[in-house]
Structures are given as structure tokens and as C-alpha cells.
Amino acid sequence: MRYLITGGAGFIGSHLVDSLLADGHDVLVVDNLSTGRLANLEAALMHPRCLFTQGSVLDPYVVDDAVAQSDVVVHLAAAVGVEMIMANPLRSFHTNVRGGEILLEAVHRYGRKFFLASTSEIYGKNYNVPLHEDSDRVLGPPTITRWSYSTSKAVDEILTNLYREERGLETVIARFFNIVGPRQSPSYGMVIPRLVRQALSQEPLTVYGDGNQSRCFLHVVDAVAAIRGLLDSPSTAGETFNVGSDHEISILKLAEMVREVTGTTSDIQLVSYEEAFGTGSGFEDMVRRVPDISKIAAVTGWTARTPLPTIIEDTVKAMRHQMEPCDDQPLRLP
Ligand code: UDP
What we know:
Elements: E1 2-6, H1 11-22, E2 26-31, E3 50-54, H2 60-68, E4 72-75, H3 82-87, H4 89-110, E5 113-119, H5 145-167, E6 170-176, E7 179-180, H6 191-200, E8 205-208, E9 214-216, E10 218-219, H7 220-232, E11 240-243, E12 248-250, H8 251-262, E13 268-271, H9 273-277, H10 294-300, H11 308-323
Parallel strand pairs: 1-2, 1-4, 2-3, 4-5, 5-6, 6-11, 7-10, 8-13
Antiparallel strand pairs: 9-12
Helix pairs in contact: 1-7, 2-4, 4-5, 6-8, 6-11, 8-11
The structure holds uridine-5'-diphosphate.
Uridine-5'-diphosphate binds next to helix 6 and strand 8.
């Protein structure tokens, strides 16, 4: 079986590539390396069953060629990270909406199976937790940049569902809730790699707002197991699933845990949203976001296995390694 992984040089994508190769599958990665890194595919690129194309999902020729050569398409390429979205709202919206449409057109043309990576941002500020797959989307006005990201992924979901209903495409959608672990870049605002890097650099740990907002974090290895289960089970066809942990922690407590695990001397610094995102950005944060994961558990038997301290320890180990000075040349394509 050959899997096309768009965004396969990214954080989740590269772990999925490794897992598929280890199980004997063929993999084709399409990534424009905007946020993905070749270093994430260091081992995979040496593998005879792994092909890599540097290209964008916005390029219909690249997409057509890649889909034609594949049996299953896993669409992970997207603009991610709150900071990235806030800094590049138009480009992010285009990448997600046009990219999704171009992919689906090609997938339909060749009659392939389609997996869409979506996000818990879909639910917006619905605090009626736990969030079920059919919970309402609660959004602020479209002028608030954050909601444009939620909307772009909702468009992807709607297109996917319409292609299934009207064109008979075989599809499955996963909504990821705060996936964390090795290879996640601290550059796009995600809180755990950001706090870990600050702790290891003995810089203040920046906690936005009063730190009482909470999240549930899932190890990337558990996320990959969920993707594999969703792809392999015939009963997931046409369905949408939450993928996350239901262990909730406030960001302030999280920062304290990062301090403990790293043994840093850094203090925790409360930073207002205006300071973090600029005045007039109209930034809105989510107060809580807890998934109901009973559907994926019932259909595939999947559960989140890795406890939060281990997630943080793994992130610390990877970040320490990444921060070590080295004389290596940047990795080049073979
Ligand atoms: N956050 C924080 N400090 C940071 C980065 C993020 O306190 O340096 C907060 C952010 O405001 C949010 C939570 O951590 O409440 C999770 O943020 P992230 O961007 O990782 O994910 P998302 O908001 O998409 O759940």
C-alpha cells in the first residue's frame, strides 16, 4: 500500500511516515518545507520505500502526480500554530482552503481513500466540555483572525463530507487536540515546546493571561496510533473523530510542571494577550478544550496512553538534543 502524506516533513507527518515505513508500507511525502523540516525525515529519507517531493498542495500538478501514484491520501499539510496564523492570516487561509480543495479534486479524480487532519479549533469557544464530534461551533466575528483558522478547517471538513455524500469518496476526518512531542517546533507558538525551550535557556516561562485557561495534551506517538487505527478500521469510513487526551491541566500548572521536569531556575512570567499578540489584534483565547474521546475508543479501541510528565520529558530530551551546538551541515535531499 502506498500512502501519500502531505505535510509529511512536519511534526505529526514525519512520525506517521516513520510508523508506516516500519510496518512495511510505501510512503510518498509532499511538503513545501515552509514549517516542515527535512531533518524530521532524516531516517525516512534513507529508506528505499520513501519518496519525497518538495512542493506545495497549492500546486495542482504536484498534487495530481502524487495522488496518481498513491492508494491512500493523508492530508496533514496546513498552516498551523496560533502565532503562525496570527502573523500570516491570508496565506494560512489560502493554504488550508485551496490546498484542501485541490487535494480533494485529485483524490476524487483517482478514486483514492482520503484522511483529513482537522483540529479542535473547529469548536471555537464552546466551553460546554467534553466536546463531542457533533457539538456546536461557537465563534466570534470573522474579523477576529483566530476564527478564520477555525473556519478554514471547517471548510475542509465540509468539502470532505460533500465529496463523500455527493461523489462517493471514502473519507475519514480526525480533529486533533493539542498534540505534543519531539520534533514540534517552538517557533509557531505551541505552548509546551515554547515553555520547554524557555526553561532550558533559563529564560522566563511566558504564561499568557492569568494561566487559568486549560488544555489536554496528547503525545504524538499516541496521535499516530490513532491515525493508523482510523485508517485501518473499515467502520471509520465517512466519520469524524476527536483525537486527544481528556486529562485537563491549567497552563499555569503546566508551566510549574515544566519547571520541575527541567529543574530550571526560570521564573514564570504572566504576559497579557495584548503584549503577546499586539494591541488591536482582538485575540481571543479558549478557556477550556476537553475532547470526548468515547467515539474513537468505541470504534477502534484506541486510548491515549502517555501521561503528561512523560510527554514533557520526551519534549525536553528532544529539545536538549536540538539545542546542542553541532557543526553538521544542513540535511540535503539525496
Ligand atoms: N500559551 C502560553 N504561553 C505561550 C504560548 C501559549 O500561555 O508561550 C497558552 C495559550 O494562550 C493557550 C495555551 O497556552 O491558552 C495553548 O496554546 P497553544 O498555542 O499551544 O494551543 P491552542 O491555543 O491552539 O490550544
